Amino acid sequence: MLPESGGLLKHDFKVFKQPSKTFRLDPLNQRIVGSLDGLESVRQAVNCALNTERFDWLIYSWNYGVELKDLFGRPMGLIKSKLKKRIKEALTQDNRIQSVDAFSFDVTGRKLRVKFTVHSTVGDIQAEKEVKV
Asked: How many helices and strands in the chain, by DSSP H and E?
């Protein structure tokens, strides 16, 4: 004889999606100016992660930020391949971000500008990061 379900069935409970509401940061004045949610919250998270050097700040987890310091002075081909991998690694730590793709590179002197698409649970974002190498 098989036991019965114990009373919990699929229709006995509801699953709610957690909001991604966070503080809106003003980068020019370095202060909080309200709150935001959804796609704008993900956009701000992308900018914050890409502007934080990984392993440099004790207040952040070792999973937060991007590693850029060791790329200075390296050959441009090597920088492009490593930067692509490191941006993907940094951004996919956020559980709202599903994937990062469509990378394009623009080199001006010793500046490398990388543009890419971030696919998140709330929509897609076009983002970019400039690195001085």
From this structure: 2, 5
H-type alpha helices, 33-98: 39-50, 76-91
CA 41, 27, 110, 55 dihedral sign is negative
- 6-49 pLDDT tens trace: 555 556 667 777 667 788 888 777 788 888 888 999 999 999 99
User: What average pLDDT score do residues 54-59 get?
Assistant: 89
Residue carrying structure tokens 């914050």 = 48
Q: Count other C-beta atoms under 10 Å from residue 41's C-beta.
A: 20
Decide: helix, strand or coil at residue 36.
strand
pLDDT given for residue 51 in this prediction: 92
CA distance 102 to 117: 6
- 128: tokens are 């970019």
Q: Are 122 and 38 in contact (CB under 8 A)?
A: yes
Report the DSSP pairing between strands 22-26 and 31-36: antiparallel
Q: Does the global pTM surpass 0.85?
A: no
Structure token pair of residue 16:
């709610």
